[in-house]
Amino acid sequence: MNILLDAFGGDNAPLEPIKGAIEAVKEYGVQVTLVGDEEKIRACAKENNLSLEGIGLAHAGDVMPMCADPSTVMKEHPDSSIAVGCNLLKEHKGDAFVSAGNTGALLMAASLTVRRIKGIKRAALGTLVPCQGGCYLLMDCGANAECRPDMLAQFAVMGSAYMSGVRGLERPRIGLVNNGTEENKGDSLHREAHAILKKIPINFIGNVEAREIPFGACDVAVTDGFTGNAILKLTEGLGSFFSKFLKGMFTRSTKTKLAFLMVKDGVNDFKKMMDYTEYGGAPLLGIAKPVIKAHGSSNAKAFKNAIRQAKECLEGDVIGKIETGLAQMKEQMKDLPEVPAEE
Amino acid sequence: MNILLDAFGGDNAPLEPIKGAIEAVKEYGVQVTLVGDEEKIRACAKENNLSLEGIGLAHAGDVMPMCADPSTVMKEHPDSSIAVGCNLLKEHKGDAFVSAGNTGALLMAASLTVRRIKGIKRAALGTLVPCQGGCYLLMDCGANAECRPDMLAQFAVMGSAYMSGVRGLERPRIGLVNNGTEENKGDSLHREAHAILKKIPINFIGNVEAREIPFGACDVAVTDGFTGNAILKLTEGLGSFFSKFLKGMFTRSTKTKLAFLMVKDGVNDFKKMMDYTEYGGAPLLGIAKPVIKAHGSSNAKAFKNAIRQAKECLEGDVIGKIETGLAQMKEQMKDLPEVPAEE
Fold it and tell me: Which chain B residues are closer than 8 Å to A187 by Cβ?
């Protein structure tokens, strides 16, 4: 098993990806190939006294800028680490690709080279978000601002495959994010999606309201990329708002600082629960091979965990599970009119 | 100034509305008329040793059930406190109406009797949500799951009028909730809305991401009712999740309980900041007279504050400000094609 890692993605490249790769090789026994400027990778490793023994290198002379238009990735940046990584994945020179670079460019490059799984209308970005008792998969969380009902149904099938293949859940509970629990709630997109979700072979538990999601109401929260993006960002924003409040509360005086020492374990539990690095990155689901988008601010630990996540995608046969789910969905949906695929 | 208060709306009716009315009369010197079953109101007041002196009563023999289809309010429940209250408002027998009852029914009854302000396509529900440094107005937060760009622009004008008229802000900062700060971000609804918002005479600060909203990024967060509903409910859900965590952290042991006593002020400040009763209710904007939707779980204090809010809407001439804003918007938009009003 060879995991390709973009050495030039994210705010802390290339040092943290290199460190993450070294740790992952040691800890998980996987092969890792760093994709990026070879000379710079070697120089950075040397400077930091890191041995690249056992780590593969694949040269990519360019870097896709974070703010560049994603649609330019293959034409204007064909030598970027994202484009090269996706091409290597396509050519079977790696089994999965992890990058903390430009999300849109990663989605675009993977869709154009590795291609989507047959039958998938649009690839989607899933994010594991902490909640009471663990985490839930929020998808789509930003790849597709405009969605059709059948796309939401495919997100559900993909999310179910991921949570069963990687997180080991037997029958992941799939919820549709909506503005009420009754079937007829929401706009036409969500009403139609609800009708499809009821028919397909997943454990659909119905509509979920955003209020219930932090309490672990579902294992997969299915939503369009616009709402999903708002949910993800508001969760981050309120989490950071609360953390700031906690900090302010405990640093008011000597007395409150003492109080902090007395509840330190609890605060640390909270920090650990909210720590995105624990869960790795965001799987880009719908692509024919595992692609993981690591957080832009990933450190070595986050990269290591994203590599573990790629390994788990392969071991849990997430792609195969998605294909099976799609075939079952097609079988049960054959009375419904076919919706044309979108490019 | 006579504020009509639905005595049979919300989980704690009629006792808490009665208490809220009595407190408001004392504290704000307004006239309050309780709308609902007279006999039951008198009996409840007597049972609780409350004097109704100075409080008006307007009889309504029926109550609109919380879960009933809102569209049935005028035909099947014409004697409900919501329908009667709206009719009294229409007939100038009151200056504003406050209810903690069925939100959809209140919107429907107000739209059908009091009617919308001339030119307003759809009334919207604004909610004051706590954030760093105070609160922001989120609108629409659920009245209109499906929106058009010009509706979002009207929400902005109405929100601006409210925050200037009631909260005294000179130039309320209007943000459009979107999945990125750049102009071209979002789905077609949000891109088109952005283009209109730039042209109209409000203090439009551009797109805001949900991550920034808890930190007070804008005074009015303009959004469609579907996304707004998700934002409101997720804020409530994460707030309650966080409170639960705090409680768990401080009740672990005798030591942590002691720590709680040492930071109690800070915890109380947080509770106060997150307390919806401080801000009153949600203004239903776009109706020709002030209508306030109080929270379903309102207590006396929340009703009192919602009455104060109705008074402030009248004193701050929110309706007049909306009319002025609409006229200015029309003037600046006259090159753009007219979008037909929707019923």
Answer: 145-146, 226
What residue of A is the nearest CA neighbor of B215?
A241
Q: State how far the Cα of B12 lies from the Cα of B302, in Å rounded to an integer.
A: 11
A35/B193 Cα distance (integer angstroms): 41
A15, A43 contact by CB (below 8 A): no
CA distance B23 to B111: 29
Give pLDDT tens digits for B68-124: 899 999 999 999 999 999 999 999 999 999 999 999 999 999 999 999 999 999 999
Q: List the single residue in A179, A225, A263 with the smallest CB-CB distance to B250.
A: A263
**Which residue type, as a one-letter code, is found at position B123?**
A
pLDDT digit string (tens) for B209-240? 999 999 999 999 999 999 999 999 999 999 99
pLDDT value, residue B338: 53
Which is nearest to B181 in space by CA: B152, B226, B151, B212? B212
pTM: 0.92
Cα–Cα dist B32/A289, whole Å: 67
Instruction: Report how far residue B95's alpha carbon sits from residue B91's, in angstroms, rounded to the nearest whole number.
Output: 10
Residue A168, sorted as left (phi over 0), alpha (psi -120 to 50) or beta, turns out to be left
**What backbone phi and psi angles, to 5 degrees, belong to B319?**
-60, -45
Q: Give chain B positions within 8 Å (CB) of A181.
A: none
Count Cβ atoms below 10 Å from residue B326 Cβ, excluding itself: 20
First to last CA, chain A: 31
**Measured between alpha carbons, how far is B11 from A10 in angstroms, rounded to an integer?**
50
- Which of B283, B274, B332, B294 minimizes the C-alpha distance to B159? B283
Inter-chain contact A267–B249, Cβ cutoff 8 Å? yes
Positions of E strands within chain A: 2-6, 31-36, 55-59, 96-99, 124-131, 134-139, 173-177, 203-208, 220-222, 282-285, 291-293
CA distance A127 to A235: 12
Pull the structure tokens for residue B227.
């996304």
For residue B33, the Cα-to-chain-centroid distance in whole angstroms is 20
Find out whether A166 and A315 touch, Cβ atoms under 8 Å. no
Closest listed residue to residue A223, CA positions, set A214, A235, A232:
A232
Measure the CA–CA gap between B101 and A103, rounded to whole angstroms: 45
A224 close to A155: Cβ distance less than 8 angstroms: no
